[in-house]
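Q&A FORM
Asked by: J.P.
Topic: structure of SDR family oxidoreductase

PROVIDED:
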Amino acid sequence: MSTIGRIALVTGGSKGIGYGIAESLIKDGVKVAITARTQKSADLAAAALNKLREGYAIGLEADVRNLESQQRAVDLLLVKWGRLDYVIANAGVGHFAPIHEMTPELWNETIDVNLTGVFNTIKSTIEPLTETQGYFITIASLAGTNFFANGTAYNASKWGLVGFTQALMLDLRPQGIKVTTIMPGSVATGFGEREVTEKDAWKIQPEDIGQIVSDLIKMPARTLPSKIEVRPANPPK
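REPLIED BY: S.T.
REPLY: Here is the structure written out as tokens.
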């Protein structure tokens, strides 16, 4: 399936997995709007992406926690390019602490970004995706099926996201919209304010997730991989 001339939105696309996805899409001839919480971050990332193909990236300020903010970004994308084919709901945060140290503020931000943010993203894009019979992809985590200590907020948000996405797939499949959730394990990003070093070379790289997204949108229309688990091939022993 040709992706030339198609239009994508990647939330949280200024760094990490989102940026890796945007790179892969642009290499496939897809024009990409990336969002970030600040216009400066979005513009800097878009400028770097445009070095791959000039005019293929725009940066938009949006906070997925706020439906109106997300809708404004989508409206600007539609004014710019007139259609929307692919949405990758990637924006996410990670706060990890034992329950007695997990504050209401950290809990709320985790749920609001990782789960409610995806709700806001589909609500703001469902009409243009219906018009193009497009694709909605969420970036969940293996933490959506595997619990761990200090993960009350993160586990809750990702388990919720996996369930949300699979139910969404059933809701939207009759309308011709494909829905998939990708569940990565350890990815070499600055997620959780950690610095990426050479010691992270064994991990999944952001461009690897980008490759998966590129492969998904090229699948025959008759086929839908609805949930994909991704793990490092050779983790440390």
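FOLLOW-UP: Residues 104-132 form the longest helix (29 residues).
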